[in-house]
Prior knowledge:
Helices cover 32% and strands 32% of the residues. The chain is an alpha+beta fold. The strands form 3 sheets. Strands 1, 2, 3, 4, 5, 6, 7, 8, 9, 10, 11, 12, 13 and 14 form a 14-stranded mixed sheet that branches. The protein has a 3-stranded mixed sheet with strand order 16-19-18, with helices on one face. α5 (70-83) runs antiparallel to α8. The chain starts with a helix and ends with a strand.
Amino acid sequence: MKDKNEEKDIKSTPVWEVIDKYFKRDESWTPLVQNVFERWLVDEEDPSKACEIYRALLEKQKEYNLPANEETARALKIFRERAGFTEVELKVGDSKRSATASMEGRTTKRALRNYFLRVAAVILPLVLVAGGYLYLSKQESHIPVVVAMTEVTTGPDETKEIVLPDGSTVWMNETSTIRYAVDKSSSHRSVELSGEAFFQVVKDPTRPFHVKTADVSVTVLGTEFNVKAYNRCEETMVTLKNGKVTVETTEQEQFTLDPGEMLAYNKVTKKTEQTVTDPDVATAWKQREIYFDNETLEEILNILEKQYHTTFDVDKRLLTTERFTFVLKKDDSLAQSMQIMEKIIEGFSYSIANEKVTIRKK
Length: 362
C-alpha cells in the first residue's frame, strides 16, 4: 500500500522534478522513481511526458552529465524528427493535446505503439546509460530491453583487478573508469573505458569482445591487450601482447594488430600510427613501474611532477635532445628516484626543499 501511495505521489509530481530526481540521484531518488520515469518514455497514453524528457535532455545536458558530443546531439535531433515535434510544439509540451497533435493524426493504438518504440530506440540509450543502465533491442520482437550495468573506478595512485561476468580479467590503472553489463548470459560482451586498462579476454568465437573509448573501438575474440585512453592525453593507444585485435577509429578507419604492435590515434590531428613495440613497456604500470622509453629529460620530469605532486626547477643546460630509457618504481620515494637519475644522467645534480626539486648541472 505504501508503494502504491508513493507511486501516486510521484506521478502527480511535475515531470521536471522527477527528471531531476532520476539524474541527480539525491536522497529523494528511489527505485520507484526510476521505474516511473522509464515507463514515461514509452507511455502510449500520454506522449507529453516523453516530450518533456526530450526538452530536459536538450536544455540540461551538462547538468545531467550526458556526453557532450556529436552522437548525443544527433540522437536528440533524430528523436525530435521521428517524434514529429516542432520547436513550437516542444515549448508547449505540457499540453497533452499539443504533443499528440504533433503526431499528425496518428491516433490508432498500433500507430501509437510504433511511434513510441521509435522514440524509445533513440532516447533510451542516452538516459539509461546516464542512469546506470544500457538499452538494447531484441530484433526479433522489437521490444526495448533494459540491462543492468555496473561501473568501476580507480582513484589517484590506485589500481584494481576485476573479473567480468564472462570470466575475462581487467587490470585498471589509476584514475580510470569502466562500465559493463552484469548479466553473464548476455549475447553482448562490451566494456566502456575511460583511462587505462589491460584486458585478458576469455576466448568465445560466438561473442566478440568490444572495448569502446571516446575515440576508438577495439574488437577481439580472445587475447591480451592494453588500452590507454585518458581524456587528458592527446593520443589513444592500443598495444597487443597476444592474439589479434581490430581497432576502428572515429574516422571509420580499421586496423589489425599482431602481437608486439601498437596503434596510436592522435585526437587532435585525427592521424593514426601503427608501430612495433615492446608490450612490457605499455604494461609496466601493472608492476607499479614507470617505464621511460627513449624520452627526453623534459618529458621525464613532466611525468614525475604528476607522480610525486611536486615541481622541478631545472637548469636549462640539461634540457637537451638527449633521450633516456630506464625504469623507476612507483613505490620509491622522490629522493630515491632522484638518486637513480643522478647515476644515469650525466651532469645531473639535485636538491629537495619544501616539496620543490632543484636540478642543476654539475
